[in-house]
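USER:
Class, as today's exercise, take the chain set out below, and explain how the chain folds.
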Amino acid sequence: MIIREAKIEDLPGMLDIYNDAVRNLTATFDLEEQTLEQRTKWFHKYGGKYPLIVAEVEGEIAGYCGLSMYNEKAAYARTAEVSIYLSSRFRGKGIGGALMTEILKRARELDFHAIIAGITEGNDVSVKLHEKFGFKLAGRITEVGFKFGEWQNVLYLQLTL
């Protein structure tokens, strides 16, 4: 497995992973699959202070992780939001942990102070992954997303670096 900076050529693999989550998981509240054009715009929001990394296994994108702006107000400049998505074929193989290790290393190097994760309640695997790295529950908001015919709650976890 190789963990590296995402390249534009990785987008088709990243799009497959994301659209699988749209179709099958509450990990995203998007309700319609994204197009390559939409994800290209999304991709260009990353870089510099907001890294986007991939895990590559035998030439295939197995997962990706990124830091994004938490809030555009200036006082939040040292807080970022983390997102992580894994291919269904590669879950349970340590890839999530490897991606999280690398993104948190970069967050420290970039002088972030706090990292926030919004995780749909019931996604216990994701909660456990974040807790393994020191994230703590910061709050819970109820019935804020409607997906798969029911209201979804979101847990907010925070890591102070």
User: Anything to note?
Assistant: Residues 94 and 129 are 10 Å apart (CA to CA).
